[in-house]
Write a structure and sequence with these properties.
single chain; 367 residues; alpha+beta; Transferase(Phosphotransferase), domain 1; 2 domains; four-stranded antiparallel β-sheet; three-stranded antiparallel β-sheet; 8 helices; 23% helix; Protein kinase domain-containing protein
């Protein structure tokens, strides 16, 4: 889902708790506002407390689907059977339904952890919903509390190694501040736009939140992606965060928007990939060419060069069809030496931008 739409309809895992006595028994419990994981989740997880800090639960294989259904307020129907690959076996098909619309299908095998997903069953009737993720290794579910003045972001985590759950408060946002609400939504939505999509996740355990986009027939589909909106850098990555922060603070129209942190950036300009936008006739090639040129001019006006101009780094915002040039990690002063991966005849970063723009125009003509 595009960021501006996400601002209108925040998605997540909200579990209303009516009275303080129903607040979660986990260590970082709270009583003010709306509790996002409480007695209902405790029951689903079937945990018992010991030593005031640890939680013992049944294996995630037997509990995760129930938790998913509860948090997303879905219904699972398990009344359809079909032949499996083995002639001697039949497998039961589970259909996940939300608001009278089928939002997913899965097939039961040895355990819930081995269920596979048929993403082509998603329909345009799918209402706004967040999907909890249970990847291999560490499992985390975002949740939050709300009061009249603040939002507190929490995280419920399952550690497969020790088969235990824990929870911790991550951040506090001031809801009376537009910037606070903006940052809250950005932090919650882990939808990375520049990585390769997964057409069909291998198992439901691999599902991660996706970007919902509008097709030409006004339906909806989900693009499954591998990680989140926050792009984390390693300590040995040679990223000039000061340059990126300078770009984000400038009022640019055709360059990626975001926020800088110590070792990461959070992208707020979420859009379609150029390839998808062209296939859906969302924008013309002439418009793309002109606006990528404008993006470079904007960067050059700051004395900076992009140094990685290619189709994979161009995106189109669905709201106003604006073309955005992203992937700013290679940006540097226009008179600086270019990255090593460029023709020997190019001596400056500015020259590399012009060379890459010409190559991009040729690439655009064949897309």
């Amino acid at each position: 889902m595009e960021f501006t739409e996400a601002m209108k309809q925040p998605l997540g895992f909200k579990i209303p708790i009516r009275t303080p006595r129903y607040v979660s028994l986990f260590p970082d419990s709270f009583v003010e506002g709306t509790a996002e994981y409480g007695v209902a989740v405790n029951v689903v997880l079937q945990h018992t407390m010991f030593e005031h800090s640890q939680v013992e639960v049944a294996t995630v294989d037997t509990n995760w689907l129930n938790l998913f259904v509860f948090l997303c307020q879905c219904v699972v129907h398990r009344d359809q059977c079909h032949d499996s690959d083995s002639p001697s076996e039949q497998e039961m098909e589970a259909v996940v339904v939300k608001q009278n619309a089928m939002v997913g299908k899965c097939v039961t095998r040895a355990s819930w952890g081995e269920m596979t997903t048929a993403t082509n069953a998603l329909t345009y009737k799918l209402g706004p919903a967040a999907y909890c993720t249970f990847p291999d290794g560490l499992t985390s579910i975002p949740a939050w509390t709300t009061s009249s003045t603040i939002i507190q972001l929490h995280q419920l985590t399952y550690n497969c190694a020790v088969q235990s759950y824990s929870t911790r408060q991550l951040k506090t946002y001031h809801v009376s501040n537009l910037d606070g609400r903006h940052q809250f939504v950005v932090d919650v939505f882990k939808v990375l736009k520049w990585v390769g999509s997964i057409p069909k996740p291998h198992t439901t355990m691999h599902l991660v939140p996706g970007i919902r986009t509008v097709t030409r027939n006004h339906g909806h589909y989900l693009t499954w992606v591998k990680s989140g909106l926050v792009k984390q850098f390693q300590h040995d990555d040679k990223i000039d965060m000061a340059v990126m922060d300078r770009i984000y603070r400038a009022p640019l129209q055709h360059v990626e928007r975001g926020r800088c942190h110590y070792t990461s950036v959070t992208i707020t300009s979420i859009g379609q990939t150029l390839k998808t936008a062209l296939s859906e006739d969302l924008v013309s090639r002439d418009t793309v060419k002109a606006q990528v040129r404008s993006a470079l001019d904007e960067l050059h006006s700051l004395g900076l060069a992009h140094c990685n101009v290619q189709a994979a780094n161009v995106f189109v915002l669905l709201e106003d069809k604006r073309v955005i040039l992203g992937d700013l990690e290679s940006c540097r002063p226009v008179d600086a030496a270019p990255p090593q991966v460029c023709p020997n005849k190019i001596k400056t970063a500015l020259e590399l931008d012009e060379y890459q723009f010409g190559t991009f125009v040729d690439e655009l003509a064949t897309m």
